[in-house]
Amino acid sequence: MNTPEAVYKKMMSTDYYSQWLGIESVEHREGYCKIKMQVRKEMLNGFNIVHGGVSFGLADSCLAFAANSYNILSVTLDGFITYPNSGKEGDILFAEALEKSNNRKTAMYDVTVKNQDDLTIALYRATVYRTKKEVLD
Predict the structure, then answer these.
(1) pLDDT tens, 38-68?
(2) CA-CA distance, 37 to 19, in Å (whole number)?
């Protein structure tokens, strides 16, 4: 098993929020992650569309898996999200994180959340701080 996949599996083993979201692995490599989940009824807001916190959570989880893929424990410093379209119950949402910059202490990622029809649901940009710790023992 490669390092990014091993990091994902270790993180998911105790990431109860990502487990609740129903996140499934699609692809992992250094500085990159793609995951998916299905929108359930309890994930909808009062307007019967996917709650922004759910889209944010999916994007933030994707960011975490990508940022930690080098086996360097990395935590989010900041993040900004926009919601150009809304999701609905039954949608399959795909989140894809791409590394935009990476240096010794910080890295920046763009995460796109799209549905099964390739409609963009959310765009998330975040910066992570790289600690001196490793994810894997």
Answers:
(1) 999 999 999 999 999 999 999 999 999 999 9
(2) 10
Tokens of 71: 């086996």
- The CATH class of the 3-130 domain is alpha beta
CA atoms within 13 A on the CB side of 12: 19
Query: Phi first, then psi: what are they for 32, rounded to 5°?
Result: -150, 145
Report pTM: 0.96
Rounded Cα distance, 71 and 4, in Å: 7
**SS3 at position 49:** coil
Contacts of 121 (CB under 8 A, 6+ apart): 50, 55, 83, 84, 85, 86, 87, 91, 93, 113, 114, 115
The secondary structure of residue 134, as a DSSP letter, is -
From CA 97, how far away is CA 13, in angstroms rounded? 20
